[in-house]
């Protein structure tokens, strides 16, 4: 303790529902829990049936939740990195402060900073468990790749410009700030990345018993493995009598690799705290707890 439990999968499989139910159940058991959703198609507020527009909120005893929006992450990024980016950029080119907005909107910045933000929350929140509802597949996986490469590329590119411009000499004469900053960004990215690979992080893959979702699950499984993320369980959500045969394919493929848990299809969407607290049967809860908290 503390640990980070993250839920991965394509849109619509039940990530937000399951993350919320998991976080709520933990809080009901007496853990202090922080639930953060970084899916930029926000649904946490609908799933929990509480208004989250004013920022992080304690929705139930011991459970604080936060819905991150794209706008908010851009603002936070500017606060944290804007000035540094301006300092590095303006030492290379004659630019004004508009460069900060320009960089903040560059592809990949939002995804990249989302990781930093989750890590930051994890390091600073005084809770037992942080539950992370990740963005839908594409963004999530892309985010991991970007995290791996972003600062390296940025660093190399900036170093090249510095060389080309002869600024390196100037820096060697004592004004070393840009390189120091770039180096600190790189170290930050490394810290975030090694945290995601650490044993404090437990990832859970969520899928549905559909042929097409099996393919996606296979892909995410490979990506997370490649990245070195500790994947603990696969939840097949919305199982019914009609899709038992595909469940067999899931079992064949994944049972030897990680803990497999099934959740039945409910007659109606599990919305609100009461419905969510009943999503997991006692058996499912025990398995999930065993796999992600105690293994
Ligand atoms: N076990 C279930 N039974 C019935 N409906 C479910 C179940 N799990 C999720 N849902 C519903 O499926 C939809 C998608 O779930 P959601 O958690 O928003 O998925 P995601 O976050 O992966 O996009 C929502 O309407 C949700 O209420
Ligand atoms: Mg969602």
Automatic annotation (TrEMBL):
Q: Which InterPro entries match?
A: ArsA/GET3_ATPase-like, ATPase_ArsA/GET3, P-loop_NTPase
Q: Which residues form the ArsA/GET3 Anion-transporting ATPase-like domain?
A: 5-244
Question: Where does the source fall among the domains of life?
Answer: Archaea
Q: Which GO terms describe its molecular function?
A: ATP binding; ATP hydrolysis activity
Q: Which CDD domains match?
A: ArsA
Similarity remark:
Belongs to the arsA ATPase family.
Q: What protein am I looking at?
A: ArsA/GET3 Anion-transporting ATPase-like domain-containing protein
Q: What organism is recorded for this protein?
A: Infirmifilum uzonense
The uppermost taxa in this organism's lineage are: Archaea, Thermoproteota, Thermoprotei, Thermofilales, Thermofilaceae
């Amino acid at each position: 303790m503390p640990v980070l439990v993250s839920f991965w999968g394509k849109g619509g499989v039940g990530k937000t529902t399951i993350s919320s139910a998991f976080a709520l159940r933990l809080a009901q058991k007496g853990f202090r829990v922080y639930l953060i959703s970084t899916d930029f198609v926000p649904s946490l507020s609908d799933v929990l049936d509480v208004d989250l527009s004013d920022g992080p909120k304690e929705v139930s005893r011991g459970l604080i939740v936060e819905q991150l929006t794209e706008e908010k992450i851009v603002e936070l990024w500017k606060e944290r990195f804007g000035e540094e980016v301006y300092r590095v950029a303006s030492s290379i080119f004659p630019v004004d402060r508009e460069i900060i907005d320009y960089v903040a909107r560059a592809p990949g910045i939002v995804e990249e900073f989302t990781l930093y933000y989750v890590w930051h929350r994890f390091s600073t929140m005084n809770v037992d468990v942080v539950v992370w509802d990740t963005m839908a597949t594409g963004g999530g996986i892309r985010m991991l790749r970007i995290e791996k490469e972003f600062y390296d590329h940025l660093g190399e590119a900036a170093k090249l410009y510095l060389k080309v411009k002869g600024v390196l000499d100037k820096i060697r004469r004592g004004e070393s700030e840009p390189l120091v900053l770039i180096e600190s960004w790189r170290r930050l990215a490394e810290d975030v990345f090694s945290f995601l690979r650490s044993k404090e992080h437990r990832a859970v893959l969520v899928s549905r018993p559909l042929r097409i979702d099996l393919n996606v699950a296979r892909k995410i499984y490979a990506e997370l493995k490649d990245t070195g993320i500790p994947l603990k369980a696969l939840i097949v959500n919305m199982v019914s009598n009609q899709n038992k045969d595909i469940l067999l394919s899931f079992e064949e493929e994944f049972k030897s690799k990680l803990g497999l848990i099934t959740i039945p299809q409910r007659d109606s969407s599990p919305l609100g705290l009461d419905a969510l607290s009943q999503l997991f049967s006692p058996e499912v809860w025990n398995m999930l707890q065993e796999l992600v908290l105690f293994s």
